[in-house]
Specification:
Layout (H helix, E strand, L loop, with lengths): L1 E5 L12 E2 L12 H13 L8 E9 L6 E8 L12 E5 L7 E5 L1 E6 L2 H7 L7 H9 L1
Antiparallel strand pairs: 1-2, 1-7, 3-4, 5-6
């Protein structure tokens, strides 16, 4: 499973629970979920989704309050060299309350993991997707 370690200073010293599937936001009224997934994959990793069959894994909701996310996920079997990833960037105020904004990579590294290792690496809210993937790969 291909995962990206979340970029920026808040995740820099974390490993377990600090990795995520490529994902992003979209507006359901103006964009189809699968098209948004392909666009966000490209924006986050700097390359298109590998050619292959898209396997629907469904949705998960996680987070708290205003940061609650609903994620619709697909898996695609394909080849992707993590060394070729050119991550997108985001800006945030850093240090906090300094008034200074800095750019950080959306992901600071990308790696392939088996499903057992991916369970430990993934943020908690995305872990329910792993049994779904295992079931569909059978």
């Amino acid at each position: 499973m291909l995962l990206g370690h979340m970029g920026g200073p808040l995740w820099a010293r974390k490993d377990s629970g600090a990795w995520s599937m490529p994902k992003g936001e979209y507006e359901p009224a103006t964009e189809e979920a699968r098209a948004a997934a392909a666009r966000e994959f490209d924006e986050e990793l700097g390359m298109p989704v590998p050619d292959g069959e898209w396997i629907a894994l469904g949705e998960v909701r996680y987070g708290r309050g205003r940061s609650k996310k609903q994620v619709t996920v697909w898996a695609v079997e394909g080849e992707l060299d993590p060394a070729r990833v050119v991550p997108g960037v985001f800006e945030m105020e850093w240090p906090p309350r300094s008034g200074e904004y800095r750019a950080f990579p959306e992901v600071d590294r990308v790696e392939w993991f088996d499903l057992t290792t991916a369970h430990d690496k993934l943020i908690t809210g995305q872990r329910p997707l792993l049994p779904r993937l295992a079931e569909r790969l059978r």
